[in-house]
Amino acid sequence: MHSCYVFDNLSNFCKDKFFKLCLHYANVSVGNPSLWFLVALDTGSDLFWIPCDCRSCVKGLVTRTGRRLDFNIYSPNTSTTSQRVPCSSDSCRLKKQCSARPDICQYQVNYLSSNTSSTGILIEDDLHLITDDSSEKTVDAKIKFGCGMIQTGSFLDGAAPNGLFGLGIENLSVPSILASSGLTANSFSMCFGPDGAGRIDFGDKGSSDQGETPLNLDTPHRTYNISMTQIVVGDNVTNVNFTAIYDTGTSFTYLNDPAYKILTESFASQIEETRSQPNSDIPFEYCYDLSPNQQTFEAPLMNLTMKGGAQYSVANPFVFVPVGDSGTAFCLGIVKSEDVNIIGQNFMTGYRVVFDREKNILGWKASNCYNGTESNMLPISPRASPSGSPSMSLGPEATAKNGSPNSSQVRPGSSASTLSYTHFILVLSIVTNFLMFVLW
């Protein structure tokens, strides 16, 4: 039960100081006149926010080719369709501050990464979408989002430098708003291809032959939380019982004991490569040296059994890192967690993952994101997109501690399911292939 892995997948190659940028981005277009934003796609939080009249935010970056990319900064005063969300709105959580400014709703979201937050006011404006059909019709969806005036922590250090696209379950997330407006079914999918490209499809309810497992919704803050009953690593089979958040907003997978110990030690006992010396610059404990000019290695296959019995095979859980002047090592892309378990984006590579909030299930099917219906790659507002701009998946710093700034919920199936829904597509692309860690 071993497989041969080829060391040529640059989408899984991370230089030591670029670990926060082993991510995906998407280009979205907001307001009138429209402005594009290079945003993180995060199923671990709910609020969509972009830099706006900001006092603390990233202003741009430099590409690997030396091209300077200035980020757009949104302002409600320059968009003809912008409206401030009043404090009396059902979407406003911080109502206790209404006496100071009843005409605006303030928000603050704190994220798991230390001292990482976004603060500002809620705005409603047009999100420009293009349908996934032959007509490529433009649709303007009214979306409530955060006018992010102050970003702190990891947001100033490479994570979500130009905004974060909340895809969580609560009713202020983008898919929740699209479903409650009757524009799409209350379901969407994300596909992460082995070449680093991918797509997000709003309205996608998956297929009859996909694997499925139920979502655990009886948690204080509802997330895409699933249960696992078995871990298979090569010849080792271990029954388990633990839950994990399925989070595209995390680059790698975070597990606590006993799941972490079971998976990593089973892997270490079956790998034949030489284990690397510990390196404080690398967040992974299990790394192995590759000899000069080595292009392949064998490693045990990994399978997770989900609640309900469906099997989930981890296609390529490895991250390649430089060692010394010219050496290379591969690391098992799992970090030991002290609290929450997170199945990160690296475990989703090679799958179209369906977040079906009507049936309350997580679905998956192997895909390269191009075949069949997934070959039509339609971006949001292509006229406004810069060359190569994409869609992202963050480290755990992108997952909100306390959920959305809005506490009310979308009820599964609340959208009229008899309607003929439209599909909207966003294109994803890995960020480390074209960015340098230069921000201002």
TrEMBL record:
GO biological process: proteolysis
Positions in coiled-coil regions: none
Location of the protein in the cell: Cell membrane
Biased composition (Polar residues): 401-412
Positions of transmembrane segments: 421-439
Active site positions, chain numbering: 42, 247
InterPro entries, A to Z: Aspartic_peptidase_A1, Aspartic_peptidase_AS, PEPTIDASE_A1, Peptidase_aspartic_dom_sf, TAXi_C, TAXi_N
Record's compositionally biased regions (Low complexity): 380-396
The keyword Membrane is annotated on this UniProt entry: yes
Region (Disordered) residue spans: 380-412
Membrane topology: Lipid-anchor
Main location: membrane
SUPFAM superfamilies: Acid proteases (SSF50630)
A GO molecular function held by the record: aspartic-type endopeptidase activity
Domain Peptidase A1: 24-365
Keyword annotations from UniProtKB, A to Z: Aspartyl protease, Cell membrane, Glycoprotein, Hydrolase, Lipoprotein, Membrane, Protease, Signal, Transmembrane, Transmembrane helix
Gene Ontology terms: cellular component: plasma membrane
Protein name, as recorded: Peptidase A1 domain-containing protein
Native source organism of the sequence: Ambrosia artemisiifolia (Common ragweed)
